[in-house]
## 1
Amino acid sequence: MNRFLLVIFAIGCCTVSVAQTKWRDKPIKDIQLKEVTVKAKKIRQRGDTLIYQVATFAKDGDRSIGDVLKKMPGIQVAEDGKISYNGTPINKFYIEGKDLLQGRYGLATQGVEHKDVSSVEVMTNHQPVKALKNLSESEQAAINLKLKDGAKSHLITTINAALGTPSLWSANLTGMMFSKQWQMISTYKTNDTGEDLQRDIREHTDILGKSEQTYSEAEYLTLPTRKQSELEQRRTLWNKSHLLSTNWIFGIGRDATLDAQVACLTDRQHANNETKTEYFLSEGCRTVEDRLHSKAALQALSAKLTAEINRDSNYLNNVLRADLGWNSGDVLTSGSYDASQHLYMPRHRLSNTLEYIHRKGKNALTLNSRNQMEWLPQYTAVVRDGQPYRQELGRRSFFSDEHINYDWGIGRFVLAMEGGLSYLNRRMQEYHTRRYQTYLTPTLKYPHRDFNFTLRLPVSYFHYDFGDSRKDDVSYGTSLGISYRGIPHLTASLSGTISENPYQIANRYDGLLMTNYRTVTQGTMEYGTTTGKSLTLTAMYQNSSLGQFGFLTITRMWNKNPFVSIQSFDSDWLINGLMLSPNRSRSWLVNGNFETLLPLTGGMLKLYVHWMQHDRQMLAANVLTAYRNNSLSLDAILNGTLFRKLNWKYELEYGSTRLCIGDGDASMLQGFEHSFSFYYSPAKKLSLSLNGEYYHNEIARHQYTDYFLMDTKAVLKLRSNLELTLSLNNILNENKYAYTSYTEMMSLSQSRPIRGREFLLSIYFRP
């Protein structure tokens, strides 16, 4: 048997040897492999973090990371630059893990180019304070920009300048540095093309559910040029704006940072508007027509210094800031009124906020201190029919809040006890008010991954010193919230509150305040507080593997009000204000959104719904009248790519407002907006784009107006870092835009001029 196996083995070896000899004698042929395309996932999930690959969402024509964020499902970017994730505002915006901009992230979304960002990380349920993890859960997300290696540790400079007709200019010089230990974004911008530079430095961070006592002086005067319409602001804003901003953050050790921000803004704006207001009074309808010619000068200087230590065992955050503003305006009006008005509206605030947290095991001690001073030496002067009127509105206030919170971890539960003292000292002309508040808020929390439960029972004692009288008050409240994340891709929450709002000191004055050339506001010396109840149901859907996100929020509110709004006329003066008369109001708020990737089109579908309804009462011409307002907005956005070179986008928006007075029939006005954009690159270095907007507005019952606006642009890439752009805006030279809406017990019709046909030649250079 062994011999037989040896023979077989020998024959096999010979066969292999012969085969190898024959293989060496034959020529070797090339083997053609089929092309294989490897596609990275657009969205990956790692724990509670979603990772969006920027390159898979960026399209030709996009430059800033803000352009790309708008194309990422689950992320919403509002017109003012505010970012939300699945309908909830984000609480932090990081760049490489550092909070450089402290809520002013418009500077990054507009200034950081998407080609420098490898991925956008969305950290859901993000608790920015390490010492509060597993003690205080967050329902908000944070965004972190992960930069490419080539964008780190060296200075990035971009220059964008433009000249055009008629007499147009725009310039933007930005410098950025992102190193391991420090970061910087500094920019200078100027333009007269309708770009709103206030958006870049507007603070958006809103940490929901954070217990904080704050105070801000109410604004009685408003600048007339700041009115909004459905059009993009760049089409209706005439401006001459300059913005200088610098932002720095330094890492000190492993967990400490020092952040400094300074911004200076000067803005000159002018507008020519026509308005028609119909007031629905018991005695009949009263119509007021205005033709406004207005100018506004806005000047603001802000500085902010933040020191932070963020460790697992302790947390320290101190914010010292100064916000100084000098706003003024002039109005010349004709129509129902022939009048002129000058407004002087400075507003200055100094504040310091300190927060310290010490964590030991499952227990945490939190100390908070906030102190601020405000000065508002404002006035307005009006001339009507040759008669001068002047209203002084000088105010100053000091506010202080000191409170302490202790969290006990008891098994899976957390029991928190918060208590504090606050003090307000306010002067407005001869009215002097002091408010003392003592408050205590016990809270029971069950912060679990799948199930969260929070119960708050706040109680406050107020003592008011009005100078000639005093008032003591005790308010109670209850807040209960439950959320569940145990169902795959779905989070549901239900919350309810019963609360009593503090007395509104801003309404306490005797007589009338003149707020503009035709309106006076009536104050009240009576005391009263509003009590309210609310119930909110929220559902959030997230399936990152399919690129599908959605949310739905339904809120029902009931309020018991001590004061009723009044609206009447005394000769030609409109009187607004409050009068002591207990009444009730009810409201519905519905917000929904669904977004999904569409692989077939290479784009995305977004659907939005927003509906509000308010049932209220008003004392109109001395008659108590019930009325109902509601508004509906539906929005659908669809985008994609054709033939790999043509990017397209289509949006359809429907809006309506309704008003029903008493038992009468409801009146409704509606409008439609269609918009489209195309971006095509016929050659490697040339790209063309076309944008259009069509509006169909109901300005009166069954009377419609139509507007069609169109822009075009051509971009020539001379080098990878050098571009020339030719822009032609408002090709059809539409010169005005009109719309009408219902609000409270009146209809408001506005006709605004539109910036005419404009030509711009711009150059972009990145050294």
## 2
Amino acid sequence: MFADVIGQPQVTETLKNELMSDRIAHAYLFTGSRGTGKTTCSKILAKAVNCLSPVNGDPCGECEICKGIDDGSIMDVVEIDAASNNGVDDIRTLREEADFTPANSKYRVYIIDEVHMLSIGAFNALLKTLEEPPPHVIFILATTEVHKLPATIMSRCQRFDFHRIPPQDIADRLDFVCRQENCEIDRSAALLIAGIADGAMRDSLSLLDQAMGQSSHITEELVRKTAGLADKSRLLSMTDCILRHDAAGSIDIIDVLHRGSKDMARLCEELVEHFRAMMLLKTMKQPASVLVMSEDDLNKTAEQAEKLQLPFIIGAIDALQTAHDRMLRGVNRRIEMEMTAVKLCSDSKKAASSLEDRVAALEKALSLIKTDPTMITKATSGSSSPKAPVAAARPSAEKMKELRDNAVPMTNWQEVLDDIKKYSKAIAMGFEGSKAYISGKYVLVDSPNDICFELLKNSSQREKIRESIKLITGKEYSMGRYSYPEEETNDDALSKLISDFKKAGVPVNNDDEPQ
């Protein structure tokens, strides 16, 4: 039944409606990522068009045709693997067979899997049959790489796109399968399997089958062991080491995992997913709809995300992805993982020290002002006596209006982003969908998301972007934001201290360079 195809209502409902109204096409094209139900749906469709007693578009599963297709005794349904039968002669043989009327059923159905593997000559041979198909023949073409198909082939087929199956749907199906097999599966384990499968039901069922071979009660720990994943606590501990700048502790964790035969490239992928989760937690209002994890893991990850700045998280993802690429090129995986861990611990220490120094300086300045209020007068009088410290601030509303009024679109902004991509793909991704304007000596960035503005706040990242702008335009510009939110966040310690300065009457550096 089409109900057995999980998470593809846009396909199954349409096919059922066509079958019930007897509007059957002569060629179908099923495309989508692996394990999403293309072959399963093809076989159900082959039964449905030939079933003697269809029920609301579904095959009955009880008639001799349905049973014959299931056990392979009906020769009118032919499944061809185009990966190993991709030559012109193979398709010519198919064309000759197609001319014969079905022996037992109403339609002769050809299911051609991985159809993109056919040669150019084979496609040309198939095209003639698709142009003038015999009335008793139906072709079902399935592929994971639809872009490799000639436009002439696609234009003669009804195309159905199979989407990645939502994690919740996969978890529900796994729970159903376990109940049928008299097994028990924890919800967190089902969600973990769904996350590993990345939208592929076939991969989910394969991993579930492996786990069921070890125990009738499937837990998250068992799934991690079966899939060769690091324990979630190890990932959290590794991130804690980065937060504490504890390079030795992170190497100890890597050593334990390596001695447990954990693949370092896989560990790198898991850390990327963990940092991605923290990135989404810091940028989305409802990240739970995207993240596939238990509520407990979500809370623990959110706690760690609160302690890290977004630019550092993006930089960590970039460093881990670079390390993963190097691992796949043949370098020593353990050494590469250790080097990356030490680098992340060092970078987090630099980021924390920079922020702590700035906060400490502002706190000290505020303390001095409260002790000696005359510093305010001295600072504003222009005398040569010691001045009160000056804090950095955003431009005034009037200045921003002036910048916006004089701004013109930067036509070569995409070239700048392409150059940034050479330095860091992750940083370039943060500016995806952004636009830029030139106003005097400034380049003002406008973006639908806040990630790029967090990057602009980081001095080192901002300098890299300015270098790219200079390389493309030949001119030096200051960086800024095209528009600012009306309200500042209350949880920004620096913003709070700057506000305290203003209340105390301390002059604020308004040098018109937005950050």
## 3
Amino acid sequence: MGRLPVVALAALFGFALSAQEPVDSSSVVELREVVVKAANIIRKNDGFVLFPEADDMARSNDAVELIGNMNLPGVFLDNKTGSLSSTKKGAIAYRINGAPATEADFRAINPANIRKIEYITAPGLRYGDAGVVLNVFTARPDVGLSGNVSGRQGLNQGKGVYRASLKANYRKSEFTVYGHYEYGRFSDSRLTDVSSYQFADGSVLSRVNKSDPYVQKEDYLQASAAYSYMDDRNLFVAKLLLSGLQVPETTVHSTIQESVGDSETTELERQTLRSKDLNPQVNMYYQHEFASKGLLIFDAVLNDMTVHNDNEKFYSPGDSSGSSILTYGSGKKYSTISQLQYIQPIRKGKLSVGVKHTWNKSRNEYSGTMFSESKQTRHAFNVFAEWSGSIRRFNYTVGLQGHHVAYNQNEEMVREWNLQPQIQLSYNATRNLSFSVSGNSTMSGSVLGQSSSIVYQNNKFQYMAGNTELKPEKTYNVSFSSFLFFGSYFGDFDVSYSRKNSPLMQDIFRDGERFFTTTVNGNRADMVNVSYGSRIRLLNGKLNISPRLGYSFGNWECNSYVNRIHTWWFKGGVSYSLQKFNFSLDYYKNADALVYGFGKRKTQQSLLFGVAYRVKSLRFGIDLSQPLNEYLYTLKTASAYATGSKYFYQRGNKPMILIQVSWNFSRNNKNSHREKRINNQDSDNGML
């Protein structure tokens, strides 16, 4: 049958082949009790260490593109958005040389300066609620200047992404500035809202709101400036980050048809939306490594967030008369986060301890035909201790964290203590196959309703915002994972279950002849996620195949109704490198669960074809995105007094053509030290 088809079948269906192949003893690395072949992957207790290959680095403009081109099974680059995503539950935590970072910071890294990438698939308590961790280790030049500039512009639709970064190194210091601007203008968005309301006398009000096509607008800006100092034992980072999201004035015209019994009325509605979200942030990070290999870490973050939303609605029965409702929603939030951690390797294990304090003060105001205000002050302390070790083929991590939260909303105050255990067990069945099981629990304080929610009322309806009950949210998680890698194949399978005791939900109540829509605390939420991801590299790495698929089940309960959602998604890609050209083909089909109501969010099924050509440090590309159906967002709600369905169509099924240009440059980079690895051997002891 031949080895290539066998490998391809095993990669697609996840079979573990037992074929024996000779192993050169000079290419084997012993990592505690874990022995793997030293290709470009080293297995660790909590993940992998990967060494980028020359071809991947040559066709990458920054660290984000490099990780995408490496086709990690649980992390992939979405070619439609240009951002990294994870198939696993939880967010991606970014690190550079161990220090906290953002995806934007990864954009400012020259791939030529990357020594290795640590891909942590089972983060411990020190990483909070992260699903996976990407930690990039760089070889910093003693003196030099580097940076990159890139632009991505739609030719037939209003979409553009522009980035620029500049990095200067002098001895042990590094200065970085970064800018990112993105905009979207989509002209064929439309909305249909169908609702039924039951009055006390048994009559039913049916309401259909159907909009004309309108332009959906969005602008996003991010800028940062950072300074870092690094020597053999110390790392210091100071960063100023400014991000803002703005929705310019958007007008939506729609027709509302209402009927009660035999009577029917028609109204015209004009809705004008404006919003602005601004968030400046200051981050200070310091770590020191002792002679005993112990690591002391201090991290502090200061946030100042401002959100403002305007929503003007004008109702007209079709003549010159009418009524206008002008509402505002604004939010202001200050927060500080400070934490201290210490990590100490001890023989074949590692002890991690830490303390974290979070303080925030929030205020949301809603005004219009009626006024509403919510204030909240919150203090949270988190203390944890965690031990990681190994016994032959078994690796284990056990931890315990104590959480104390004290917060008040308006005139009410809540204090609560909670102990949250964590356990993680993994077994290395072979040098290429491992299994792991983990479980943990978390707790967070009550949060306010979204400041984008607007309070207004007319003669029939009233919409309110805010968290009416001060319930802390507790989440319990358990997951099972397996990893298999050999030769050209690298894949993982993951199953997870989580339960929350207090999800925020939307409900509808009746008071006489008026209906109230508000945010309430639900009773519980259960989520099950199953995912499979893999990468297959053939023809000496020139051909890459990366199929990924998953299934999610969600169950939300509140006093009025129960929501259940089943969703499937598939993302597959094929890329081929031919000298200076790179060809790619991706297929997307997604369905994402929503928290409010019975909902299903269905993105476009689409094909994305891309061609890129590189000349030295310049890269030119063109992408063609062909939707196979319309983007449809469906939201269904039901309660004792009302039922409703919303259908939101966006962007239609028109193809989108985008051109890309990027330039990665470096000047006078001089590096007096050599990398601390030979033949891909890593000096780590098997743990972070």
